[in-house]
Fold:
Amino acid sequence: MGLWEDGDVKFAGVVKAFTLAMAACSACSSRAEIVENRSFSGPKTTIRYALWGGADEVGTARLFCQQFVKLHPEVRLDVAVYPWGQYWAKLQTQMASGLAPDVMAFYSGSFGEWVARGALYPLDDLAKQSGFTVKDYYPQAIENCSWDGKLFTIPTDIAIWSMVYSTDRLEESGIPKSEWPRADKAMTWDEFLKLSKRLTLRGADGKIVQYGMSAGQEWDLAMCGMYGGSFVDRPVNPTKSTAANNEALIRGFTELFQNQYADSTTLGAAPLSAGAFTNNSDTILISPKFAMGTTGPWALRQLRDAGVQFGVTPMPQGPHPHNLISVNSAGIYAHSKHVKEAWEFVAFLTSGDREKEVGLRMKGIPSLISATPYLIHNSYNIPGAEAFLEDLKIAEPTMTADATAIVSARDNWLNSTDEAIEAEHDARLGSLPKTNGKVSAADYQKYVAAMNDFIAKTVRRRMPEMDANLSKAIYEDHLPPPTPLVKFVLPLLAVLGLIGVGAVYVRGVGKTRQSEAAGLEGEKVGKTGYWFISPWLIGFSCFVLGPILAAVALSFTDWNMIRSPHWIGFQNYLQMATDKNFLIGLKVTFLYALLVIPISLLGGLFTAGLLTMKIRGTDLFKAIIYFPALFTGAETAVLWTNMLNKEHGVLNYILSWLHISPVDWMDARHAFFSVILMNVFWIGGAMIIYYAGMKQIPAALYEAAELDGATVSRKFLSITIPMLSPVILFMVVMTTIGSFQVFTPALFFTDSSASIGSPDNSLRFYAVNIYDKAFNNLEMGGACSYAIVLFLIIFAITFVQLKLANRFVHSENIA
Amino acid sequence: MKRLRTVPIYVALLLVCTLFVFPFYWVIISALKSVHGLDLEPPAMYPAEQLTVKKTVSTANREFEADGSDWLRLARSDDLLGSGKHGAYYLHLDGEKPSQLVSWFGDSAVKPVRPKATEIKLDSVPVHEASGKRVAVVAKSVRQNDNGFDELLFTASPQEGALGDTQILKNVPHQEIRYFSAHFDNFAKALKGPEASIGTESSGFLLFMRNSLFIAVMAVVGQLFSSSLVAFGFARTRFKGRELLFIILIATLMVPAQVTLIPLFTIYKSLGWVDSFLPLIVPQFTAGAFNVFLMRQFMLGFPRELDESAEIDGASPWRTYRSIIFPNCTPVLIVVGLFTFVASWQDVLGPLIYLDNPKYRTVSLGLEYFRSPYVDNRPLLMAGAVLSMIPVAILFLVAQRYIMSGIATTGMKG
Structure:
């Protein structure tokens, strides 16, 4: 114990100061924003309420809560508003730890997963007791809040997309007012196509200068049903895929794609984000390049504030009128301790006065039927909201299932089909013969015919794949219980195998490291060392080893963080082997590592090499090259999405000087390379380490070589590289480990955590799968199995690298 | 001769540096732009605004047409479209705000009505340069013809004042005029916090900065203290199983954060640490593997005699660590400190999962709140991003002299 006795005052002071700080920060851990009625001093129940949104929602939530506590002074509300991208992960972890809010906001798309996993409290009895009438609400909205005939949430507002057109663009094209689309009546599909064609303008060079229509959010999903086709037997909790041989669906998709990619004068092959800095297709009309688009009530105020003159009309109708709603709702946590008060609050949130606010503020369509007039006579005096109500009449609930895989099977098919057709469109259009930059009308017609044909065949050929994916997802959601082999034998073998591999690894690496101990022979073996490494020993067992063992155990269960886990043995691992995302994740990650390792290696060596030349200002150059490597977080995402934007981004502007036409750096084909490009800016980290290494190489070696007349490159290859090889090995190993765990760049180009890895899985790094499983699919057991496999992969690769290095790396000690 | 040889090196370095500085230049000028300035096409390479002029329209001798909305006559037209018809161009008025829209009506379609106001103010009429002259573009109109489209510009004198009759320019190349205008108030607004931009109370960006700073400083203190202790243990003392423990330490670098995320959350929750800074600070006092590695390499560089002589003088290992090794580790301490600070400052996942109370929001979390579907907050988002970079930049500038020596002496030798 003598070790600690002579710790002097200075150190004791530091320790004391930080113990105090610790105490201070645990003491001030009061809850989130509290709204309460201060005039009431009796006992109070605290209800925690969580919702997603921005600053605007904070204001509304505060207002509603203040109104509530005025009526219910015995309740204290604890309100937390999270940005959409943070909300679901937050709910997830809070439920896992039993800290879930009593009242939570939900949206219909993910409603199924949460309810199926037992997160929500059934509301039927509460509703009956308090005289709450479900019939007062729009039936589709109620359908989207119910599961197996039971009500689980109460709708607060309905989101629906209708069409919006710029009256300015219509005026300019000389379309008489009598022919403009109307708010109270949908155009027919043919009327729409005609109008859209007329509004698509080409410049003298044949390039489109104004798009008739930008097919925005939900457009494909709403319009593919125009001939009556649908993906599954029922939108809420589907039990069967209906995509196979579904002629109506095939026809709907064929027409949609043909109008977008063949004769692109109708839907103008415009990427959804074109023109909109924020990637928000709801407000695309702010750009004068678009005549029509899709939008919801919430975006109209922003359109008007931006000075856009617009009209709203229902979605065009095919033979089978069809649209989709999604529903925002409020529900109660299944294990809430204050169900009665929580119900009062939910009922309050969806009552007449609140629904009136939804309408007046145009947040969506009020779900309470009697509040609808407030949307039409909203406080911004924006006309045209009737269109949304017209669409609501024919709208279906949004698809919601108990496994995200079912919904994403549909979405992934849609994305990849779209991608394939777009690639063909670009290739064919690009190879058309041109005279003076113009394509002849005959050639263009031929192209349109061929493209129409290609699209029809592609959709038909790919439809069985959609059916297979949907069926597989639905099947896997109702798997039979695992066999004893899967349940017990395989896990046992796996654990034994792991221990064996661990032992081999430790021995293998141990051998390569023995030399290192050599320099320290004189030391006495004692126990003092354990005291010094005790901080790490404690941290390792509490924060690393313990959690890892827990993760291994959890990977053999079906834990969803809400219900207690069941042992399912090796099932998660077996499922992983057939999971497409697993392979995609591996592919994307390996490709990323294969590109990033050389970039960091060559870029770092090159810049470090330049800096070791005898020049002035090395310090400044070094600082500048290293600086960007410090910024890899959220602020960098803001910066890069700004620079890479297709329309307003500076990168495309600079490329335009070289006559390169605008590239959508954030679409499925380029997003991955944009991330690689970012890595070029992060070579500073490697540079500084190589530079430090190069500076350590004895100058005598170079002088000797110079006497022999060696050139710069010769010296670099024969002296610098071999002498630097231990450092290179160290950096390659570190970069490998880092790039296999890469995750954050996937967040940069996705604005919601629900679609992480998009566009079209191009950024679905392996670690994204883990996050996706854990926080979007609520499959903690599955997520753990993915994580363990990643750990093993990294281990294996590093092991091989170190083994190979024994042969090539110069010198006696390996860092 | 020698000087000439270095020219290509300077050129290459300058190119690389320009490339690397550019993103920072870009984010700073973006933070100084207005919403309108951000939307200029092509993008402005400096904080720019479009030149506009104020115009007033006397309604005394103007014609209007009313059909739910008002139209103000701009100019009479003589068969510009080749349709053989005569009429006039009208500017669409929405209340008293004019749109940029111009419409042509035949003579018979005009139904003059009595104007509501005697004067209409046009607040920001863009000034363009067309054929070498500056003109105020009151409105423009695009009409389809057989070969594409015609563009009509309705122009007036570029001076402030009354709007007389407008002149029509057909298919004349024109370009808006930009001038330098930096909105430093973006930073002031961003500092007030995301909620302030829509008029509700806000905790303010400075609070986020203070939270992030507190966490990061505690993390640095924790890492410097614990990692140096552990590194000393591995570098300068000998105990059974040292090599094996060190391999395990290095192996923890390979553990993906996702593996331990959920079990850790459960642990912190059972300790009652969730929604406090403790989960972000306490683990930092248990030594990071990479930091231990760096420090150990550094400490291996000290001659063995150093410890031995101290031992002969009767110093305990603790005293050797405190008075001899630790004080001589400054370069590597600075490197580890910087790395730790940056990692902690930029961490999103940790604060996202462990912090709830708006009072505890860190910069990386708070930045996200500037995004809103209802208000165009882009300049504030940019300003927030710049503000969040400042502490890291300052720290780097202060520490950068030591970084090289810190890394150079961690055994990264050739």
User: Anything to note?
Assistant: DSSP finds 32 helices and 17 strands in chain A. The radius of gyration of chain A is 31 Å. Residues 1-31, 266-279, 515-521 of chain A have pLDDT under 50 and may be disordered.
